[in-house]
Amino acid sequence: MTPRLRPTICLLVLASFVLAVPSASLAKNSDSEIEAQTQSPKASSPANGRSERPGETGRPLPRFASLRANEVNLRTGPGARYPIDWVFKRRGLPVEIIDEFDTWRRIRDWQGTVGWVHQSMLQSQRTVLVTGKRRLLRRGPEEGTAGAALVEVGVVGKLGSCLPEWCEIIAKGFKGWLRRDEFYGIYPSEVRP
C-alpha cells in the first residue's frame, strides 16, 4: 500500500467506529425508554379504585376492553420480538388495559395475569366474566326479583347499564341483572347509563 492511502483508510475506520458507537447507545436507550414507559400505573383514585391518567392514546388508564379473537398471544414485552408467555383462547374475555406503548397494550386478566398484546387483538366492547359460583340472572335490579336464568361460572356476557349495586348483563341470549360482586369486568364505583 502506498503511504497516501493509509491516512484515508484510517479515517474511514475511525469514522465507521464513531458512527457505530452512537447507534449502539441509541439501541440501549430505546430499550431503557421502553422499560421506563411501560411501568404499570401506580397512582389510583380512592373514589373509584382506578387511575385517571391518560395513556398514549389519550384514553384513561386503566380501562376495560375485551379480546377480539379466539386466540390471542400474551407477550412478555411490547413487540413481536418478545416471547409469547400465554395464549388466551376465548373471544370476548374481559381484560383490563393497564398501559400503552405504541400499538401495544399491557393487559391484566381476571386472575391477575399481566402481559402485552397488539391493539388489533382488543375491542372496546365491554364484557363480563361470571365468577365464584353459578349465579341467578334476575329480571330486575333487586334481591327479591324473579330469575331470568342461571349462569355458570366462566360465562362471558355483554355489559349493559350499571347502577350502584347492580349491572344489566346479556349472556347466552338471556338479559338480566347481577350484583357487582358476582362478575369481573367493572370498577367498584363505575356507573353506566
Task: Identify the CATH architecture of the domain at 53-125.
Answer: Roll
| Gross geometry | elongated
Order of helices and strands: HEEEEEEEEEEEEEEEE
Structural class: alpha+beta
CATH superfamily of the domain at 53-125: SH3 Domains
Give the helix tally.
Answer: 1
Sheet with most strands: 5 strands, antiparallel
Radius of gyration, taken over Cα atoms and rounded to an integer in Å: 25 Å
Q: Helix content range of the residues, please?
A: 10-25%
Number of strands: 16
User: What is the CATH topology assignment of the domain at 53-125?
Assistant: SH3 type barrels
Query: What is the first-to-last residue Cα distance?
Result: 83 Å
The first-level CATH class name of the domain at 53-125: Mainly Beta
Strand order of the largest sheet: 8-7-6-3-9
* Average pLDDT taken over every residue: 80
Unreliable segments (pLDDT under 50, ≥5 consecutive)? Answer: 1-49
Structure description:
17% of the residues lie in helices and 37% in strands. By secondary structure, the protein is an alpha+beta fold. Strands 8-7-6-3-9 form a five-stranded antiparallel β-sheet, with no helix packed on it. Among the domains are: 53-125, Roll (SH3 type barrels); 128-184, SH3 type barrels. It has one helix at residues 5-37, and strands at residues 53-54, 60-61, 63-67, 72-75, 84-88, 94-101, 104-108, 114-118, 122-123, 127-130, 135-138, 147-151, 156-162, 166-171, 174-179, 183-184. A hairpin with a 3-residue loop joins strand 13 (156-162) and strand 14.
